[in-house]
Sequence to fold (528 residues):
Amino acid sequence: MHQTETIVLLLLLVATLVVLARKLAVPYPVLLVISGLALSFIPHLPEVKLNPEIVFFFFLPPLIYPAALFTSWRDFRSNLRPILLLAIGLVLITTVTVAWVAHTIVPMLPWAVAFALGAIVSPPDAIAATAVVRRLSVPRRIETILEGESLVNDATALVALQFAVAALLTGSFSIGHAAVRFVLVALGGIGFGFVVGFVMRWVHRHLDDPPVQITFSLITPFLAYLLAERMHVSGVLATATAGIYLGWYSPLIVSARYRLQAFAFWEMVVFLLNGVVFVVIGLQLPGILRALPGESLTTLIRNGLLISGAAVLVRMVWVFLAAYLPRWLSKKLRERDPSPRWQDVTLVAWAGMRGVVSLAAAFALPFALNDGTPFPGRSYVLFFTFFVILVTLVLQGLTLPILIRKLGIKDDGLTDEEERVARLEANNAALAYLEEVAASDGRPVEIISRLRAEYDERVQQLQQCADCDDDRRGEIVTPHYQQLQHEALGIERQTIIRLRNQRVINDEALRRIQRDLDLAEARLTSGL
Fold:
């Protein structure tokens, strides 16, 4: 089958399975992986091989970048301590723990290979975490910590992997050299990300052409990642830094037309790449099993469960220790940042899904050592990596919604309340401006009065929202208002379509009016 046909079939499969996943109320990454796994055993289907370079240089940058672009820098900075404890501390502890377990149960794996396996499976996946958690109603801080962790941890894991492979190839390893190299790689990636962000900020500031700006936006993650990797610094951190930097400045440098189109563009890119990635993960098992001829499947599964259990358990222990031990030791920290609820800590501890970056890193292992001998245990590393991904994605991905419901975790509504307060202040500022115009400008009174009436109505509704009970506080648009407004917009749509069909207006006039109606509907679903 031609590659083009394979890509079309994958996209069709993704769209169909996502619809099914939403009907079944199942996180779509889980269903996509399981479906890919099932399809991989159907005879005569084309084999889809995972190319590590395509994952690292084509899929990863445009998936990390929008996650960083839409990350709140304020929230990221205020949660930097727990994010770094997970993204650096947990990754290194998981690497060591998994290496010890793997070497113990499979003695034929050299220590360097065991450490490589530990580094490969240590980071929860940015794609999986975002795809699963963002569809669940969780407190904002949990979402910030999980997404922030996933933006940084790949850099830690990939550097650790490089040193494990280098130790195997050269036969030497220095902790001091590794620590210095890690700092240089991380700081270099962050610094280069700032440079790319600054340049792109200048570009956007001098453009007002959404298609061209979206093209530059698409180029940005590849520019940051590829050039950073060529400079031997962290492409992941460079991409994430550029995204966070531009996300902070974009409200000042880009137009509303660009924002509306760019948001829709990135939403589509992330959806398609996510879908293809998770299906392709499931399709890899037959090829991995073929590399293990004569191995007992029962033994492989047992060992895979032990390694997966170690990865899950070490995260559970580390998250609880990192959440409560520093506060127990430091009174100042307890006063500044009180201990979180154990339910919230449990959710963070359980949300450790692995994904395509781990599998790509495993496939990227060399086939042979410097002397030409085969890379020891490469097939085992591939199988155990796939097994950890499958177990964490399916087990944790399927049980996260249940866990959230059983623990009574709900969205804290902080973002909604901050939105309400900001909208109220913005509307009051606009009213004050209208008062100044009415007093000093010669513009028609009826225009000022009409605008003032609209703002008065918005302010009144926003003030009423402040008096709602806890379940409704921060809710800007009431359900009854929303439903009635949707019905009214529907009547407007039917009317303009009838006028178009009766040839009273042409299609261009229809599209202009329809765009206003679409914006009104979008504004309705997000607030005033």
Notes: The chain has a mean pLDDT of 85. Residues 297-329 form the longest helix (33 residues).
